[in-house]
Amino acid sequence: MKRKFLFCGAFLAFALAYGTVTRVSADGEESRVLIGFKQKPDATAKGLVYQYGGEIKYAYHIIPAIAATVPENVIKQLRADPNVRYVEEDGIIKAIGETLPWGVDRIDAELVHPYNKGTGVKIGIIDTGIDLDHPDLAVKADVTFVAGTTSGDDDNGHGTHCAGVVAALDNDIGVIGVAPEAYLYAIKVLDSNGSGYLSDVVAGIQWAIDNGIEVISMSLGTSSNYQSMQDACDAAYANDIVVIAAAGNAGNRSGRGDNISYPGKYSSVIAVGATKSDDSRANFSSTGPDLELMAPGVDIYSTWKNSDYNTISGTSMACPHVTGTAALVKVAYPAFTNVDIRNQLKNTADDLGAAGFDTKYGYGLVDADEAAPSTGPPDTIPPAQVTGVTVTTVSSSQLDLSWTANTEQDLHHYNIYRSTSSGGPYDLIGSPTTNSYSDNGLTASTTYYYTVSAVDVSGNEGLVSDEAFGTTSEGPSNIMYAESITFDGAKKGKNLSLYTYVKVVDGSGNPLGDANVNMTLTNGASTWNYSGTTGSDGTVKFRLSKAKPGTYTATVTDLTHSTYAWDKSKGVTSASCSLNSDGTISGATAHSNSVSFGLADICPNPCIRVANISYSIGKQSAVTLKIYNVQGQVIRTLVSNVMNPGNYTTHWDGKDEGGNKVSYGIYFYQIQTSNYLCNKKLILVK
């Protein structure tokens, strides 16, 4: 059951390290699959995968599915489970295989550039990556989901070629893209051969949603229809993202048949076919009722890996022409939704072939000049100067900035400039769209100076703010401690399993890998001893098989590391839980090394839209109170300052750091001081 996605042109998942106690896998060959559930998968669903001898690769949150490796002989049983919606193979997806390029010229993008270059529109290239050092490309951020790689750098060339068509810089060298000032994000899901797994493509789409990407470009495809991929594309579309894909290279000379590739065939995706320089359809360009637009796709000259350039053909090359045009439309009409942008692209396309829509040319050739017309004289008025910049010390490596939000209707983003000297010189370090920014990776005990400016959709930048500064705290000593001990249960047949997770962090609270953990688990007179090593996420997992219902206590007896020492005064040393006869966990309690602080249970819980969080402070201490989602991402920091002893209640309005309402579901609230940490579950309902 191994299949991959092909080129049309030519997460954050955390791996848990396992201790010396291992579970027993089912016999037989293993297969990579995606398991779709009828509800969002919780600990019970994950336990189901473990019960069947599976290893989880991704637990998605944009779709109710888990990517895993399972024994082939249990797939039939998984499909029969009443909570499972589908089990499908983790198929292979493949890429569809300063000169003004003829394609950019043909769609009249250069006529738009004097007043609109797609400034600041966030475009995710889901492909083989992008050459991060190419002089004709500016990549804002990169991520990889391909095993054996550490960045979104392109080791094939295909993704770099597509990125150049979209947004090669207007810099007097090489080529120029359709939207040369759009922001490129390299989302690597395909390997050096142009192939990748379905699970990685879904993870790439999820990353795009989580990181505010506005247009997704996928010059990849497969002839197989996967429910998980359709659900992921639909989720992106529901999040106001314009989703564009190559139609595929399975066409024929006569243009007969329905041979559009997936994901281009899905209703949430714009499928793009390829034309030649005379506007006729390229013989290889796929056809069918799901074809939406055409764009140049033959002999397209663009950027390539290793800072080079190359000429290739395919619907992979046509797709980014439409992607770049979508960015131009986004700038021309800032209030447009993704549906509005899609309609604008269709309604302004140059009709080709039979009059109106047809299966060979769709709605016609994309026309940038008509899709993103000038609305008058170029806007040359910059936003107002940013005011009220403040800098807050968070840790030895992080400073947080906030400022008064600008009120211009055409505001697009802010620019953050940093220097280690008052008065500069400053370097541009970030371009957030909200009035806050976290500067990470800084040096301990160092003062940094900042200015902030506002930029509108036309690229006009206002005056920088008055300088503000902050100093990072002293670096942590080489200490470590157990931040948490948590439990999970599972039941297979009559057999119960109890999983214990120990997370180790350094003095700054960062996950610490390669820490050796010794733990004792007790239940009445029974005792089990475990030893294991933490992974890169700081976590080690221990399993007790053939467990009996009852109360269990896990105690960390020793922590060792080559460079860190265990500070027993911090974190937790033990935790208890009740394992129920149905495999569920109840009454889990962590035992802290300090009793000077306390975090109360929210009442009522579930909460309706908002929550009041109560806690007690036994002595003056630096206190942080944060809200996390189930993926462990910080949603909101509610408290971060030194507090005096007393009882407190903090209100959470159900919004994230950007002031946006979060979705209903499960969250966690965490209070942390220098020697105390506690987490509790919070459920938001309508």
Description:
The chain is mostly beta strands and 686 residues long. It folds into four domains: 95-371, Rossmann fold (3-Layer(aba) Sandwich), CATH 3.40.50.200; 390-471, Sandwich (Immunoglobulin-like); 479-592, Immunoglobulins (Immunoglobulin-like); 597-685, Immunoglobulin-like (Sandwich). Helix content is 13%, strand content 39%. The protein contains ten helices and 42 strands. The strands form ten sheets. A seven-stranded parallel beta sheet has the order 9-10-8-12-14-15-16, sandwiched between helices. A five-stranded mixed beta sheet has the order 2-30-27-26-32. The protein has a five-stranded antiparallel beta sheet with strand order 29-28-31-33-34, with no helix packed on it. Strand 26 and strand 27 (495-506) form a beta hairpin. Helix 5 runs parallel beside helix 8, helix 6 (198-210) packs parallel to helix 7 and helix 8 crosses helix 9.
Radius of gyration: 27 Å
**The CATH fourth-level homologous superfamily of the largest domain:** Peptidase S8/S53 domain
Output the CATH class name of the largest domain. Alpha Beta
Q: Please give the number of β-strands.
A: 42
Q: What proportion of the residues is helical, as a percent range? A: 10-25%
Structural class comes to mainly beta
Note the gap between the termini: 42 Å
Helical stretch count? 10
Layout of helices and strands:
Elements: E1 6-8, E2 17-18, E3 30-37, H1 43-51, E4 55-59, E5 65-71, H2 75-80, E6 84-89, E7 92-96, H3 102-106, H4 109-112, E8 122-127, E9 139-144, H5 158-167, E10 183-188, E11 195-197, H6 198-210, E12 215-218, E13 220-221, H7 227-238, E14 242-246, E15 270-275, E16 291-296, E17 300-304, E18 308-312, H8 315-332, H9 338-347, H10 368-371, E19 390-393, E20 399-402, E21 411-419, E22 427-430, E23 436-439, E24 447-456, E25 468-471, E26 479-492, E27 495-506, E28 516-523, E29 526-533, E30 539-547, E31 550-560, E32 565-566, E33 572-579, E34 585-592, E35 597-599, E36 607-608, E37 611-617, E38 621-628, E39 634-643, E40 646-652, E41 665-673, E42 676-685
Parallel strand pairs: 1-7, 2-30, 8-10, 8-12, 9-10, 12-14, 14-15, 15-16, 26-32, 36-42
Antiparallel strand pairs: 1-13, 3-5, 3-6, 4-5, 7-11, 7-13, 17-18, 19-20, 20-23, 21-22, 21-24, 24-25, 26-27, 27-30, 28-29, 28-31, 31-33, 33-34, 35-37, 37-40, 38-39, 38-41, 41-42
Helix pairs in contact: 5-8, 6-7, 8-9
